[in-house]
Amino acid sequence: MKEWFQRVWVDFDLDAVDELFKQDGQAQGIMPDMALGSNDFKDFVPMVQELLDDIAVDMTMITQTGPWVQGLYRVRALSAINSAPVNVMGQLCARYENGLMVEAYNTFDFFNLFEQLGQLPDMSLALCLSGEKLS
Known about the structure:
The chain is built from five helices and six strands; from the N terminus they run ααββαββββαα. By secondary structure, the chain is of the alpha+beta class. The chain has one domain: Nuclear Transport Factor 2, Chain: A (Roll). The longest helix is centred in the N-terminal third of the chain and has 14 residues, at 38-51. It is globular, with a radius of gyration of 16 Å.
């Protein structure tokens, strides 16, 4: 799991996707109602890389149960727009076969990410919880 984050997200090595993620594997939870396969990651990662500079991923906790590895991680980066610091948490639960990630379930605080990048208003979560609509 550490190698996935380091090579794919930090080093921006898209060839590592094929080395670490099974060709017909699927990752759930990144996009609503859509599983990402290895080819999808090769499109998705550059989109995120356009928004962030100097990405670092700190693994806060990793546990393993048989072929399943669970990780809690923190992404630290700088906004590509204004160099403001970005700090977001995520979780990944992945099943491995023969060293390859074959199935993954993700949660990532995209709401907080887009708020920190200025793409959503400050305090968006509080606004939504109070019944306000974002415009």
